[in-house]
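Notes on consecutive records. When two proteins share a document, each keeps its own sequence and its own token line. Never mix them. Below: protein one.
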Amino acid sequence: MSRQILNQQNRLRTLMCALVFTLILSAASCGGSLYKVKPIIAAPVADGAAGASAGGINVRAVPVLIDEESQELFESNLLLAGLLPVRVEISNQSGAALDLKKNRFLVSDADGREWKARSAKQTVARILKANDVYLYNPQSRAKFEEEFRAQALDTETPLGAGEQRRGFIFFQTPKNEAVSSPRGLTLSIEKLPQPLTLRLN
């Protein structure tokens, strides 16, 4: 092999090493979120949302069923990833604190299939997998999860008497398939003083 070819190969290796090093530095310095989640929505759940009351607990809920709305809220199409965001508003007029951690939120469709609630961490993992995102800064993922938790309904803190709380609950389709014109969606909340069921669409 000639000296000229060896020199060219050495220069190419040096260039590749410099490029890889630059990419590593760039990734390490980028600590922003993987997707830009919209700030927390403080407004009440929209008029016309499904509602139900029992035992002094009032619940209203509205699902996000439009791709554009999902993109606007989460900068990602959750519906294509098989995730259904449902914005929930709970009012406690029962006279006693409500331990939401014990409650079970479940969506079912017209075919009787169950859509299970997912945590913010599980939701983010599903979004990344559905979008084939495997290489990322861990800090960016942590930031993304933090922003999702901020939007999610807080079920860890008891809801005091006379208090109201809002937030999203994310549900996964039974076979991880995309959410596409689902029929007869029903939200059930179990382990309340009295179970509640709301027809979402």
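Protein two starts on the next line and is unrelated to protein one.
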Amino acid sequence: MRQDRKRGEKPASASVQEATRDERLHLAVVACGPRLEETLTMLKSALLFSAKPLHFHIFAEDHLHGSFGESLDLWPSVFQTRFNYTTYPITFPSENAKEWKKLFKPCASQRLFLPLILKDVDSLLYVDTDILFLQPVEEIWSLLSLFNSTHLAAMAPEHEEPRIAWYNRFARHPYYGKTGVNSGVMLMNMTRIREKYFKNDMTSVPLKWVELLMPLLQKYKLNITWGDQDLLNIIFHHNPESLYVFPCQWNYRPDHCIYGSNCLEAEQEGVFILHGNRGVYHDDKQPAFRAVYEAIQKYTFGDNLVQSLLLPLEAKLQETKHTYCGRASHMFTKRLKRSIGILQQETIEGR
């Protein structure tokens, strides 16, 4: 059962309410299994630095709904006024629900159906649970304004270095570009997705999104490794004009530093969004990634961001310098420092 919670809404004129709705940024996540705390930490990072109001669309197994509500309701009221959230059950087309649910990771393929479920949402940022925002959500949201008339989604490359990339070496299916794309951070114009007819290799007739997904799964289910991400790669292989590719600092993963630094944009501008895939927030394989996760997780809303978040994180990152990613950890804090500085300036100015 879908549940809506509205935060801090005061009586206002219809025009003011409409303006508020228009500027709200929509963020979706799919949480199954032991992902509650990881998801809450991601949502916390989104809320910490963003000035614009957010609407969280949380797709989760039924037994997690109560825990999400209880946790979000405990966040301080000054922060609760800045977000709404809606929880949704995990739902797939009934005739193939079991196949969709077991694809790659539990429930991950739910993201493919977001344009069909969230019919009233025009644009949406989907992120995996293991994402951490190091700058305001509105920064990536602004990329929507860079879309041309054919773009309907945006993602980062799966790899920067073809010699260590997965898709060009191992894939048994079509994929986008030279090294494929990673779907852990996916910005969508869902109105365009719902309206477009997609070229495909199953029929000479272009298909709408709702018509495309099931035939795609049936054709490629024995040849895909990364589940729904592979299906998205197949779709955009045949429709490359529909994808806007943003640089790696918007989806920075261990692969960008474990073999030496290979994300030039992050070296220049810092990491914008950290993606701790393969469970690195919860093991000792990449302590620099874990340090960022634990710093945000342990931070208490309202505490001084420099004293209670930035400085403890920098101290912890110093202990990771023996690792490749630890040597690149100055990139993890570069954008974070900027985000904190902007918030402090706004506090001084009384915004």
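For the record: Residues 1-128 form one domain.
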